Amino acid sequence: MSQPFSFDEFYDAYPRIEEQFQTELDASLSPRGPDFLFQLVSDLSIKPGTAALDVGCGEGGDALRLADQFDLQVEGIDPVERHIEIADEVLEAERSRLRGRVSFKLGRAEALPVDDKTIDLIWCRDVLSHVMDVGTACAEFRRVLRMDGHAIVYQMFETERLEPLEAEWLWKTMGVVPTSADPIKVEQAFADGGLRVEKRIVIGTEFGEWGEESSGRANRQLLHAARLLRSPERYITRFGKTAYEIMLGDCLWHVYGMIGKLSRRAYVLTPA
Questions:
Q1: Separation between Cα atoms, residue 17 and residue 146, nearest integer Å
Q2: Could you give the C-alpha distances from 158 to 36, 204, 217, in angstroms and in order?
Q3: Which of 62, 77, 150, 243 could join 107 via S-S bond, C-beta 3.0 to 4.6 A?
Q4: Are 116 and 141 in contact, with CB atoms under 8 Å apart?
Q5: Nearest-CA neighbor of 271 among 195, 198, 200?
Q6: What is the pLDDT of residues 237-249, one digit of tens each?
Q7: Closest residue by Cα to residue 180 from 237, 134, 138, 141
Q8: What pLDDT is attached to residue 1?
């Protein structure tokens, strides 16, 4: 353990540079934002009409953007029926503009409802941390990808700053599989599933910094977490224990991602 700072260091030396230090901290480090993930697609120079698969498509926003921005033929799959219903409703409003280039159906990463070697691009954003067997999912990615295809995978991982009790509660609340939040184990699952890491991009806290600089979102999440922790009964009484826990988990998820207890990574993968 390091020695504590002396009184002179804390009350004399530091105050002399504190204002200058604060000014330096107010200067942006030019963090990347979520649009960076779509830049990874652009960097692949994929041809229009290419077949893409959005694994864990949620309510369909990314699938629609991939089709619109890159002129891809996109199929979105998700295990949650409500997500597919919402995605279909959104698609219906966009159908004339997207000319039938997007579709959605139920499916899981571990058993993709897709034929072998028919996909040029897999998009998998914030999904694998909820998958029990990432190795099986990666083998499915490998099965459906063409030999020159790519998978772009993005998710949040734990870091050494996340305390064990924090992790235990957060994983349970957010439906995260502990082994699927470990970057070493996930990268081994890539290899076991027959995928090669072409690019590994450690984004860290950048998306959180970007969100705070552009909209103040991180500060709002911190404020909400403080209120939830200070007056739990107020919110439990109105919304129930389960909703309270999920809301607190979501707030802390973003706060931890801002302060480095969680770290974002993106991967570009190819068949090995």
A1: 57
A2: 21, 10, 21
A3: 77
A4: no
A5: 195
A6: 999 999 999 999 9
A7: 134
A8: 52
Q: pLDDT tens, 57-96?
A: 999 999 999 999 999 999 999 999 999 999 999 999 887 7
Greatest Cα pair distance, the chain, in angstroms, is 70
CATH topology classification for 30-159+175-206+262-271: Rossmann fold (3.40.50)
| DSSP H/E element including 33 | none
Q: What is the pLDDT of residue 237?
A: 98
Domain locations along the chain: 30-159+175-206+262-271
| Extended beta strands in 108-158, E state | 119-125, 145-158
Q: How far apart are CA 195 and CA 189, in angstroms?
A: 9
Distance between CA atoms of residues 135 and 123, nearest Å = 17
What tokens appear for 109 in the block? 């990463």
